Structures are given as structure tokens and as C-alpha cells.
Amino acid sequence: MAFTPRGPEASFFEVLDQHRASLLAALRRGGEEPAGSGMRLASRFEDSVGLHMVSHCTTRKIKSDSPKSVKNFALILKIFSMIYKLVQSNTYATKRDIYYTDSQLFGNQTVVDNIINDISCMLKVPRRSLHILSTSKGLIAGDLKYLEEDGTKVNCTRATAVAVPSNIQGIQNLITDAKFLLIVEKDATFQRLLDDNFCNKMSPCIIVTGKGVPDLNTRLLVKKLWDTFHIPVFTLVDADPHGIEIMCIYKYGSMAMSFEAHNLTVPAIRWLGLLPSDIKRLNIPKCTLIPLTKRDQMKLDSILKRPYITCQPFWRKEMEIMADSKMKAEIQALTFLSSDYLSRVYLPNKLKFGGWI
Fold it and tell me: Rounded to an integer, what distance in angstroms lies between the CA atom of residue 292 and that of residue 300?
């Protein structure tokens, strides 16, 4: 059953509207986001795109007459043959489908994934142009309607979430009045927001989750929504290095997919929460905090050294607060303040008063 939007008064969105106006002004000044080019094995950072390929870098050669690479060469040819048949017949397959055509030959799914990425990079085309789709794991809810490639009408304003489609390129006729898009790191938090009727209370809005590290389709959907509507996009992640890493993937991309950064990244994304500084500001009980592990500290140090962090002094400050305290916190820590503190107090106040960085 669909809900009837009954969101806050128009004045609630005043700061959000100002933020959107500044984003649109920045787009007009900078023009369209430029596309990266080059090879996958090396990347550089550009503020308007994120991590993307460079044209001069170390490359890897695979020879048919070399004992060391003959098997890999044969596997590449096999997958090329399958791609050719998919394109010729105008049909699609998932990476998993390809793996199971001969699982003994490929050995494991990672082999197939890496070869498909190499082919996509070598031909300089998106993976979907090869007619290879990824299995979606993400969910979306809120003020959004669209038409799938097969003509199916999708209405995300239902009480339950909708699975992110597997062919983002094929969706059309997107309609929304949303004031913002909220990316939620974890499925548990996403489901809690649904249970708390967040999309209704903050209507009109859209919420998305990639259930942890986002799959390709969830990233493509976020990018498509940004390119189509240019509404503010925020992230809600744990105040830990892993959450920050996930936020960076949405905003700046990853080394592994840097050859497709211009199709995947949304540099306009802002960090809404959970901020390390919120822990002290909200007097979150110390018993809910978790000590950083050595692995956490290594991850945090690695992120702090990345080139895009120099463009984000407020992000750096938050990460330094985490490093100094040697503690991290999950979003669920807010429930110790009250069971619905996240949806009733934390997020509404952040959105109303501009509590993002």
C-alpha cells in the first residue's frame, strides 16, 4: 500500500534548497563533469570526477605463446566469444552466469570478474556495453517512479523497499520531487528508517542502500539520479574507517573501477553522519564505543594519505578526531539516546540546519 506524503513544512527545506542552488551554480561554472581516459592499472584524482585513469602508466601484456599467460589468454578469448554472442543476439548475462557456463575452467568467480574488468578497460567501454550485468543487492525507497526496459512500471513510494534494477541504463521516465537523496551504508539502518516511516516524515526524499560496499548497479543508480535531478546527495555511515571508505567509493570511486569513474562517481556527495565529532557533541555513552583495531588504524592512515582528502579539510578533521580518540562508533549507538533518535531527531536536525560536510 502506498503512503500519502505528509512531510515537514516548506521552511524545513530552506537550507537544503540553498545547498542545491550552490551545487547547480558550481555545475554551471564548471560545466559538465569531464570523462577520464587511459588504462586501469594507474589512477589519478580529479575533483570533478574522482579517481580516474591516466594515459601513461605501466601496462600488462598477455601473450598466447607464453607458458605463463597462455591459460589466461585462452580465458580472455573465451569470454570475448561469449560477449560477442550476447551483443549479436542483443541479450544480457550476469558475471555469475558467465562463471557457471564452465566453473571448472574458470576456477572461481574472481577470475571472471577480473577478466571482464580488463576487457571493459581495454575496449574503453562500460561493462553494460558488453551486455554483462552485475547482480544487484541494493535497495531503494521513497519519492521515485520509473519505467524499466521491459515496460514494467516501478513505484518506490511503497511501504517496502524496491530492489535496485540490474540494468540501470535501461530505466527511463524517472519522476521525483525529492529534496534530497540519502545513501545509507547498512541494510539494518535502512530497514530501521523504513520502519520509522522516515520517507513519509521527510517527504519528499529518496533513500538508497548498497548493503555495505556498494555493487556496481547501486553506484550507477546514485549517479543516474544525480545526473538527472541534481538534488543534494548525502551519506549516512558508521563513524569508522570502513564507513568512510564506503562513502569515498560513492563520492570518488575506487582504483579497481577507475576506468569508469565518470559513469560512477558523484563528487557532490556530502557526509551527513555519523561524524566522529557527533560522539562528543551528543554525549553518546562511552560504553557504546569500540576501540579501533590495528586494521582500522591502517585503513584510516591510508585514507588520510589519499589525494582527495587534501580537498576535504573538514573530513580530515573528523578523521583526526577518530585517530586521536582511537575509538569508533556504529550508527546504532544513537539508539542509546532513544530508540528512534536517528529518524526523529538526528537526521531531521542535520537536514534542517545543514549539519553536513
Answer: 10
Catalytic residue, chosen from 100, 250, 341, 346, is 100
C-alpha cell at 89: 543476439
pLDDT in tens, 244-288: 999 999 999 876 656 666 778 999 999 999 999 999 999 999 999
CB burial of 213-242 (b: ≥16 within 10 Å; e: otherwise) equals: ebbbbbbbbbbbbbeebebbbbbbbbbbbb
The model carries a pTM of 0.80
Cell of 197: 516511516
What Å distances lie between residue 30 and 1, 48, 292, CA to CA?
43, 8, 39
The yes-or-no answer on residue 146 being catalytic is no
Give the C-alpha separation, 277 to 275, whole Å.
5
Which of residues 237 and 89 earns the better pLDDT score? Answer: 237
Q: Helix, strand or coil for residue 79?
A: helix
d(CA 88, CA 81): 11
The answer to whether residues 99 and 171 touch, using CB atoms and an 8 Å cutoff, is: no
